């Protein structure tokens, strides 16, 4: 397993734990979830998604800037590490975007 694969897996676990804290360890049946609870969960998920996207976009942008050597030359080891960071960040951003799509499609949590 490569570094970026480990990062994505650990990020999935982190997102899963955060979701459990937001939603609770046991989801309520759809008929028992109040409208107010839906809005609270939806806002919480939107906040988490926004925070992740903002941070990841900064990491991706800065990584691309460094790979273009706008800040100076780098050796092969530095370039390889930076490419791993960029690939992991992009994978994580894709995952966050999938969570956002899931939230939009999930019938129990509407905006």
Features of this protein?
elongated; 3 helices; disordered N terminus; mainly alpha; single chain; 111 residues
N- and C-termini, Cα separation: 38 Å
Structural shape: elongated
How many structural domains does the protein architecture include?
1
How big is the Rg?
A: 18 Å
Poorly predicted regions: 1-6
The number of distinct helices, counting runs of at least 4 residues, comes to 3
**Biggest β-sheet, characterized?**
none
Helix-strand string: HHH
Mean pLDDT across every amino acid position: 75
Structural class per helix/strand content? mainly alpha
Please give the structural blueprint.
Elements: H1 3-23, H2 35-67, H3 76-105
Offer a concise description of the structure.
By secondary structure, the chain is mainly α. The protein has helices at 3-23, 35-67, 76-105. Helix 1 runs parallel beside helix 3 and helix 2 (35-67) runs antiparallel to helix 3.
Walk me through this protein's architecture.
By secondary structure, this protein is an all-alpha fold. The chain has one domain. It is 76% helix and 0% strand. The protein is built from three helices and no strands. The protein has helices at residues 3-23, 35-67, 76-105. Helix 1 packs parallel to helix 3 and helix 2 (35-67) runs antiparallel to helix 3.
